[in-house]
Amino acid sequence: MSAPDRPSAGAAGGSAERRGATTEVVAAERIEFEVFARVCDLHPELLARFADLGLVRAETDAQGRRWLQRRDVSAVARVRRLRSGLGLSYSAIAVVAELIDRIDDLETALRWHEANSGMVAPPVGEIRSGMTGGGAGGPASGTSGRSGESGNPGTR
């Protein structure tokens, strides 16, 4: 990517010349709210609504400025696909996106369990973070940690 195509210093949170190339890559992961809205061709109020619904993860710094991560660009693309393809409301998209993420987690746990032939799968949160060690109470163990449940993973 040529220099004019890189995000501006304001979008990345500081001067790349002062910090060096390695820091520039890390800083470019975080994009100011208004810049993110322009890049995604969204009105800032609509982007704020996406953040309120949990469709993107906006963070606020000590100065009160809102920031998003570069990965949220794909989240906006998913919102647009669901909206145009299925005609869902933004509130419904938040529910559908959460269900899609949960299905992905369960499929990952199932693949882990199948690959490890009967070993207890780690909790879904550990799978998502890239950990692969076995642990009690995972989705395949049949124990959820909730009292009153049968312990059968199919009854949740």
Architecture overview:
With 156 residues, this protein is mainly α. The protein folds into two domains: 10-87, Multidrug-efflux Transporter Regulator, Chain: A, Domain 2 (Orthogonal Bundle), CATH 1.10.1660.10; 98-141, no CATH class. Helix content is 50%, strand content 6%. The protein contains eight helices and three strands, in the order H-H-H-E-H-H-E-E-H-H-H. It has helices spanning 9-12, 16-19, 21-27, 33-39, 44-53, 72-86, 90-115, 124-128, and strands at residues 30-32, 59-60, 66-69. It has a three-stranded antiparallel beta sheet with strand order 1-3-2. Strand 2 and strand 3 (66-69) form a beta hairpin. Helix 6 crosses helix 7. The radius of gyration is 20 Å and the shape is globular. It starts with 8 loop residues before the first helix and ends in a 28-residue tail after the last helix. 15% of the residues are buried. Mean pLDDT is 73; it is low at 1-27 and 131-156.
